[in-house]
Amino acid sequence: MADSVALTQFKQGMRMLRDGHLNDALVHFRNALDLEKENPYYMSFVGVSLARAERKWTPALKLCEMALSMKRNEAQLYLNLAEVYMSAGRREEALMTLDRALASLGRDARIQRARMKLGNRRSPLLPFLSRQNVLNRHLGILRHRILAWADDSRFLMLHSS
Question: For the chain, is the Cβ count within 10 Å smaller at the N or the C terminus?
């Protein structure tokens, strides 16, 4: 009985999430998780909706990571964790999560689409330093801005004549 109530709550949460009713979705997902505390899907979607609705990155990440540790062979759990990383502004971790998913699960179309959407990373400007090194990060930001400026300049030159 609790299973069917939990599933009903989860399905309502999915509808609310799809329709953009983030706080309502969070309520339904929490209700489902309260009924089935060990369900990795419910746990992961509580994390996603917590990140979207309340911008509480740390607890959202913990929930998604815990869910993934419970069921490593489910693409949706990787996608949810990557989404929370992206919404928290942690693109690097999102990319690593999707790469790990591809390595673990093989060619899953949803994972591949999400990975392509995030794009390829350029190599660090100073390869002898880690990607997370503050110097590499700031040089990368500068490179990004210069390349964006150059593209804008080329666009303006092409359309001004």
Answer: C
